[in-house]
Amino acid sequence: MANQLLKGKKGIIFGALDERSIAWKTALRAVEEGAQIVLTNAPIALRMGKINELAALCNNAPVIPADATNVADLENLLQKSMEHFGGKMDFILHSIGMSPNVRKAIPYTDTNYDNFLKTLDISALSLHKVLQSSMKLDALNEWSSVVALTYIAAQRTFPGYNDMAEAKALMESIARSFGYHYGFAKKVRVNTISQSPTITTAGSGVSGFDAFFTYADKMSPLGNATAEQCADYCLTLFSDYTKMVTMQNLFHDGGFSNTGVSQSIIEEMEKAAKANG
Questions:
Q1: Is the model's pLDDT at 86 over the cut of 70?
Q2: Cα within 13 Å of Cα(235), Cβ side
Q3: Over the stretch 185-240, which tens digit does the pLDDT of each residue have?
Q4: Does residue 95 belong to any structural domain of this protein?
Q5: Is the dihedral of CA 157, 204, 230, 75 positive or negative?
Q6: Adjacent-strand bridge partners of 206
Q7: How far apart are CA 50 and CA 94, in angstroms?
Q8: Enclosing H/E stretch for 38
Q9: Torsion-angle region of residue 86: left (phi > 0), alpha (psi -120 to 50) or beta?
Q10: Structurally, how many domains does the chain consist of?
Q11: Residue 253 belongs to domain spanning
Q12: Residue 14: which of 51, 36, 35, 41 has the closest Cα?
């Protein structure tokens, strides 16, 4: 049920690809809650995805192509967005991540370093570029909110996550560092959401995803958080109810991040041991 939580707010949603994307669901919910939005993604992603369908569902929101690793593209996006809105914005969702090493199934210990640098640029430095461009152009109102999506592999080792783990760790550090500077300069808050494993086009590309999705669900007291629930959480951070929250990595994972082991997992291990015994 909509409560007009974001009535009067304006923002940019990066990274919506298809109906499974967290960014897609966040865009729909933001509009439902009264926001006006601009949609953006890299030109190749716009050709591959269904973003024009999403735009139609979001009151015909503009779709402005932008390569988030290209500062000129980002400045063009921000300027055109401000022209569209008739002023500054109130929120940005950074839902961007891609690893050529993961896509090409190159093992972590055999990493291709050119690919690795691309992973860091696309998945982490892009957040710095978005924030730096926004500050340079004074594109965000005071008390605006920037949210980036991350994963607990930034803190703990998940073998199939490959070099994306380093990218997420760097991105979380950028959120803290830039959050400090942007907070003092313009009262803009910057946070990351560490989401449960989620069935999205990007998430499903990680090796062993299906097995780990089930494992995480059994480990988490509340189960895995869905993409829809993550969208709702993003909205709370865009809203005025979280004006004093910044520089935080916020776990949205049903309790997975603080659970050592669950009874369900213990019982499965005991059954396996008996079966093999």
A1: yes
A2: 27
A3: 999 999 999 999 998 766 555 667 788 899 999 999 999 999 999 999 999 999 99
A4: yes
A5: positive
A6: none
A7: 18
A8: strand 36-40
A9: left
A10: 1
A11: 10-276
A12: 41
Closest CA to 119 of 110, 109, 111: 111
Q: How many C-beta atoms surround the C-beta of residue 126 within 10 A? A: 28
Asked if 248 and 150 touch (Cβ cutoff 8 Å), the reply is: no
Residue 233 tokens, joined? 């959480």
Helix (H) or strand (E) holding 192: strand 189-195
Tokens, residue 168: 């997420």
Mean per-residue pLDDT of the chain: 95
Q: For residue 4, tell me if it sits in a domain.
A: no
8 A C-beta contact, residue 94 and residue 123: no
Residue 26 and residue 236: Cα distance in Å, rounded?
A: 11
Residue 178's CATH number: 3.40.50.720
Please give the distance of CA 110 from its chain centroid, rounded to a whole number: 27
Alpha carbons 260 and 196: distance in angstroms, whole number: 16
Q: Which three-class secondary structure state does DSSP give residue 13?
A: strand
